[in-house]
């Protein structure tokens, strides 16, 4: 494994390794495909999807993957200019105890030398930093859920000054401490005093970009996650009634959701599921982060094009 393959032509081969839970596989594939095409700005993109063994799947999900994705060995044979690796639903207390951990380590090591750049999303970002530098995620006192503003930090990975505020949805229980990341040679790209690191990066020599948030989310993804978590609580599968996502719902919807939560916790709402559905059906969700996300993927693909072009010129 000596470096990315020299490819003919100008098309960029972009691969997605989709590790999301069964019910989110199709939506995740569509979200990332849309972002890559939006950021391409006329570039020719070859888009392929792959799945990682070791993740427990239903028969329905396995059939979906076999129709729409290839197994990871096909990626290793074919190669890719760029890679996106999603998170997955945690099954173990420690990432290195997950059943897919050996396959994830192999993927990380392969991507270091065989891609121009890789985006590691959410739990995949935690897995990659653990394997590369021994940085362990830390459990937060409560779930970080909502749309947050982050300050960008200094010079980005293309050497360009960037001093904007960006919006990004987050939905996570764990965090990577900024101080430890910086000690291990990672560069912070965006940060908030309230919820911590959003995006960071390091040359591996492939450009590794790590996202603790979910800029790929659709406008209503946080709504669907909140509804799922409330229903889990109502069914007895969740121990705590979830907080609503921050900076996301309208004032009126937030007021109604808070009132519903109070009634449920007081034991005074026998029709909570119907009431929740009625409240959420009236919400018009907006993806306030969409422009920032498109800008991120455009900048990422610019960097990949530059690296691929430099490799072709040196051939």
Architecture overview:
The protein is of the alpha/beta class. It has two domains: 12-217 and 288-314, Rossmann fold (3-Layer(aba) Sandwich), CATH 3.40.50.880; 221-281, no CATH class. It has helices spanning 25-40, 59-68, 72-78, 101-114, 123-133, 178-183, 221-235, 251-265, 272-281, 290-314, and strands at 12-17, 45-51, 70-71, 82-85, 117-121, 138-152, 165-175, 187-192, 196-203, 207-211. Strands 3-2-1-4-5-10-9-8-6-7 form a ten-stranded mixed beta sheet. α1 (25-40) links the parallel β1 and β2.
Chain-averaged pLDDT: 92
Tell me the helix content.
40-55%
In the CATH scheme, the class of the largest domain would be: Alpha Beta
Determine Rg (CA atoms, Å): 20 Å
Q: What is the H/E string? A: EHEHEHEHEHEEHEEEHHHH
Count up the domains: 2
CATH fold-level assignment of the largest domain: Rossmann fold
CATH superfamily of the largest domain: Class I glutamine amidotransferase (GATase) domain
Read across the widest sheet, the strand sequence of neighbours is 3-2-1-4-5-10-9-8-6-7
For the largest beta-sheet, the strand count, sense and barrel status come to: 10 strands, mixed
Treating each run of at least 4 consecutive H or I residues as one helix, how many helices? 10
What is the distance, rounded to the nearest whole angstrom, between the alpha carbons of the first and last residues?
A: 17 Å
Number of E-type strands: 10
Low-confidence regions = none
């Amino acid at each position: 494994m000596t470096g990315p393959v020299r490819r003919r032509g100008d098309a960029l081969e972009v691969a997605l390794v989709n590790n999301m839970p069964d019910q989110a596989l199709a939506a995740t594939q569509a979200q990332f495909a849309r972002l890559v095409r939006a950021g391409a700005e006329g570039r020719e993109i070859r888009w392929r999807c792959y799945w990682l063994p070791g993740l427990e799947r239903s028969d329905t999900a396995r059939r979906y993957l076999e129709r729409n994705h290839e197994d990871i060995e096909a990626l290793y044979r074919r190669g890719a200019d760029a890679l996106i690796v999603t998170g997955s639903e945690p099954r173990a207390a420690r990432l290195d105890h997950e059943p897919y951990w050996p396959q994830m380590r192999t993927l990380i090591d392969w991507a270091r030398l065989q891609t121009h750049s890789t985006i590691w999303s959410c739990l995949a970002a935690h897995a990659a930093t653990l394997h590369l530098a021994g940085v362990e995620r830390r459990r937060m006192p409560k779930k970080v859920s909502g749309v947050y503003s982050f300050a960008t930090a200094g010079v980005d990975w293309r050497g360009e000054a960037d001093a904007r505020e960006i919006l990004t949805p987050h939905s996570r229980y764990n965090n990577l401490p900024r101080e430890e990341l910086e000690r291990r040679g990672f560069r912070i790209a965006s940060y908030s005093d309230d919820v911590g690191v959003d995006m960071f990066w390091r040359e591996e020599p492939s450009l590794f970009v790590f996202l603790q948030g979910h800029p790929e989310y659709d406008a209503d993804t946080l709504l669907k996650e909140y509804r799922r978590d409330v229903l889990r609580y109502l069914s007895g599968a969740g121990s705590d009634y979830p907080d609503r996502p921050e900076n996301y719902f309208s004032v009126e919807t937030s007021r109604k959701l808070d009132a519903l939560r109070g009634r449920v916790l007081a034991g005074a709402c026998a029709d909570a599921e119907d009431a929740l559905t009625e409240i959420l059906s009236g919400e018009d969700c907006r993806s306030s982060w969409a422009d920032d996300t498109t800008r991120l993927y455009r900048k990422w693909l610019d960097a990949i094009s530059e690296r691929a072009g430099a490799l072709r010129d040196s051939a």
